[in-house]
C-alpha cells in the first residue's frame, strides 16, 4: 500500500500566511534550513540555527512542510556567527555563513551520519571533518548577462536564475575575484545583449578562461578577446557557443598546467577539477594512504584528468577509466611524457561498468563518480564469482552523501567492510559535502 503523503494543514497555512509568527528553531535540516514546528507542521526557515527564536513569515510549501522567510532573530541560538560576505542572503553560493565554525562542522558531519543511518550504516567509522579554508577555491563557473552592454557577472541568486553582480567572494582565491571587473568590461564590449557563463581556473601558467556565449565571433571579437588575454595575463582563452561542444582557442600564451602527485597535466578548457588544491590534496592523500598496502594494479574509475591516478602510480600500475575523451587525453599525454605506468580507457561506467571479470586483475579500486553516484559500478563490485580474484581494497570518493550511502549499502551487502569514512568540507558555508570512504573485503 502506498504511504499517504502528509500535506501541511491548509487551514494552518491560511491562518498564518499573512502575519508574523514566532518560531523556535529545533535543528538545521539536511538542506541547510532551520527546522521549527507550528501546529503540527514542520516549517523550514533559511538562515537560522538551532536555538534561535525568530519572527518569520510563512511563504509556501516544501514537500510535506511549510517554508517561511526569516524576518528577525529575536534571540540568537548558540553557534550563530556574523556572515562575512556582503552578498550573503541573496547569493546562492553560500547559505550557511550564519553558522560559526564549530556549528558548521558538527552540522556537516551530522548530515553524513544521517544519510548513513538512512542506509542502515552506523557512524562508528566516521572520522573528524577535514575543513578546507575559504579563499582557496581555484575554479569557478560565473554566470553573466549583458543588457545594452551593461554586464552582470557572478553567481546565481538563491533559488533563482537571476545573477548576482559579484563584488567580493570570501570563498574564491583572490586572483579569481580580481578578474571579475576586467571580465565585465570585456563582455560589455563584446556582447550588447546576451548571456552565458565563464569558467575560470587558476593554473601554474595563470588563469585559464573559457567563455560560453551565443555570439558568433568575427575578427573584431577575436582581436578583442586576444587583447584581453594579454592584459589579464591569462594562460589560455577559449570561446564556446552553447550546444556546439567546441571550444575555439583564442589565445594560448602559456600552458595551463596543474600538478597531480607532482606530475604536470594540461586539462582541457573548462575541465572538472576539485575546487581547491587543498581539498584535492586532502582527498588524494587519504586515498593513497589507504591503498598503500596494495601490491598490484589499481583501477581508477571516473578518473577525470588524473587527480588520483597520478599520485597512485607510485604504488603500482594504474588503469584510468573515464567517460569524457578530453580529460583522459590530458592524463594520457601527461603519463606518456613522464613515462608512467598508466593506461587509459574511455568508457561509460553507468551503461557499461567494469564487470566482476574485468575487475579480476586489480588489487584495489578507486571510484569518484558524479553526484548521481555509481550504482551500476558498485553492483559489479559487490558481485565476486571467484573470491581469489579482484580488488580487496576500495576508496570511494563522493560529493553527494545520499548516493554515497546508497552505494556503500550495496558494497556492504556484497561482502565489503567499511573501514573509515572521512568527511572533507571542500564547500565551506554551503550544504555540499565531499567524503572519502575506505572499504576492504
Ligand atoms: C567528480 S568527477 C571526478 C574526476 C576526478 N577523479 C577528479 O578528482 O578530478 C567525476 C568524473 O566522472 C566522469 N563521469 C561522469 N559520468 C560518467 C560515466 N557515466 N562514466 C564514466 N565517467 C563518468 C566525469 O567526466 C568526471 O570526470
UniProtKB/TrEMBL annotation:
Query: Organism source for this protein?
Result: Magnetospirillum molischianum DSM 120
Which parts of the sequence bind S-adenosyl-L-methionine? 274, 302, 322, 368
EC code = 2.1.1.-
Q: Which GO terms describe its biological process?
A: rRNA base methylation
Recorded GO terms, molecular function? iron-sulfur cluster binding; rRNA (uridine-C5-)-methyltransferase activity
Q: Which PROSITE patterns match?
A: SAM_MT_RNA_M5U (PS51687), TRAM (PS50926), TRMA_2 (PS01231)
| Residue span(s) of domain TRAM | 13-72
InterPro entries xrefs: MeTrfase_TrmA_CS, NA-bd_OB-fold, SAM-dependent_MTases_sf, TRAM_dom, U5_MeTrfase_fam
What protein family does this chain belong to? Belongs to the class I-like SAM-binding methyltransferase superfamily. RNA M5U methyltransferase family.
Which catalytic residues are annotated? 399
* Source organism phylogeny: Bacteria, Pseudomonadati, Pseudomonadota, Alphaproteobacteria, Rhodospirillales
Cite the Pfam families for this sequence.
TRAM, tRNA_U5-meth_tr
Broadest EC class assigned to this enzyme: transferase
**PANTHER family per record:** RNA M5U METHYLTRANSFERASE, TRNA (URACIL(54)-C(5))-METHYLTRANSFERASE
What this protein is called in its record is Putative enzyme
Q: List UniProt keywords, sorted A-Z.
A: Iron, Iron-sulfur, Metal-binding, Methyltransferase, S-adenosyl-L-methionine, Transferase
Amino acid at each position: 500500500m502506498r504511504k499517504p503523503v502528509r500535506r501541511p494543514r491548509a487551514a494552518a497555512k491560511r491562518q498564518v500566511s499573512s502575519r508574523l509568527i514566532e518560531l523556535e528553531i529545533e535543528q538545521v535540516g539536511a538542506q541547510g534550513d532551520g527546522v521549527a514546528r507550528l501546529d503540527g507542521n514542520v516549517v523550514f526557515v533559511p538562515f537560522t540555527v538551532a536555538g534561535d527564536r525568530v519572527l518569520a513569515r510563512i511563504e509556501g510549501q516544501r514537500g510535506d512542510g511549510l517554508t517561511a522567510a526569516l524576518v528577525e532573530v529575536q534571540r540568537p541560538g548558540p553557534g550563530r556567527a556574523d556572515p562575512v560576505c556582503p552578498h550573503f542572503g541573496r547569493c546562492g553560493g553560500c547559505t550557511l555563513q550564519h553558522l560559526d565554525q564549530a556549528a558548521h562542522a558538527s552540522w556537516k558531519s551530522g548530515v553524513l551520519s544521517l544519510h548513513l543511518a538512512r542506509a542502515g550504516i552506523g557512524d562508528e567509522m566516521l572520522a573528524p571533518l577535514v575543513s578546507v579554508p575559504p579563499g582557496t577555491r581555484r575554479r569557478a563557473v560565473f554566470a553573466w548577462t549583458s543588457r545594452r552592454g551593461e554586464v552582470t557577472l557572478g553567481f546565481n541568486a538563491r533559488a533563482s536564475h537571476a545573477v548576482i553582480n559579484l563584488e567580493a567572494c570570501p570563498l574564491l582565491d583572490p586572483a579569481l575575484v580580481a578578474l571579475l571587473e576586467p571580465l565585465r568590461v570585456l563582455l560589455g564590449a563584446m556582447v550588447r545583449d546576451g548571456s552565458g557563463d565563464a569558467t575560470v581556473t587558476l593554473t601554474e601558467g595563470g588563469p585559464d578562461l573559457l567563455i560560453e556565449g551565443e555570439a558568433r565571433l568575427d575578427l573584431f571579437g577575436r582581436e578583442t578577446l586576444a587583447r584581453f588575454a594579454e592584459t589579464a595575463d591569462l594562460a589560455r582563452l577559449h570561446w564556446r557557443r552553447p550546444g556546439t561542444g567546441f571550444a575555439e582557442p583564442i589565445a594560448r600564451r602559456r600552458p595551463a598546467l596543474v600538478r597531480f602527485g607532482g606530475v604536470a597535466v594540461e586539462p582541457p578548457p573548462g575541465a572538472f577539477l576539485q575546487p581547491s588544491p587543498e581539498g584535492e590534496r586532502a582527498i588524494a592523500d587519504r586515498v593513497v594512504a589507504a591503498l598503500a598496502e596494495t601490491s598490484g594494479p589499481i583501477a581508477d574509475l571516473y578518473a577525470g584528468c588524473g587527480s588520483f591516478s597520478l599520485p597512485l602510480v607510485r604504488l603500482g600500475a594504474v588503469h584510468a577509466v573515464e567517460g569524457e575523451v578530453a580529460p583522459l587525453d590530458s592524463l594520457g599525454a601527461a603519463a606518456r611524457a613522464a613515462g608512467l605506468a598508466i593506461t587509459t580507457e574511455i568508457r561509460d561506467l553507468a551503461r557499461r561498468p567494469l564487470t566482476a571479470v574485468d575487475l579480476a586483475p586489480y588489487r584495489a579500486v578507486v571510484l569518484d563518480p558524479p553526484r548521481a553516484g555509481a550504482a551500476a559500478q558498485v553492483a559489479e563490485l559487490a558481485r565476486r564469482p571467484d573470491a581469489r580474484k579482484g580488488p580487496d581494497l576500495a576508496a570511494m570518493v563522493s560529493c553527494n552523501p545520499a548516493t554515497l550511502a546508497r552505494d556503500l549499502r550495496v558494497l556492504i551487502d556484497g561482502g565489503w567492510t567499511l573501514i573509515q569514512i572521512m568527511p572533507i568540507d571542500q564547500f565551506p558555508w554551503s550544504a555540499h559535502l565531499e567524503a572519502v570512504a575506505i572499504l576492504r573485503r
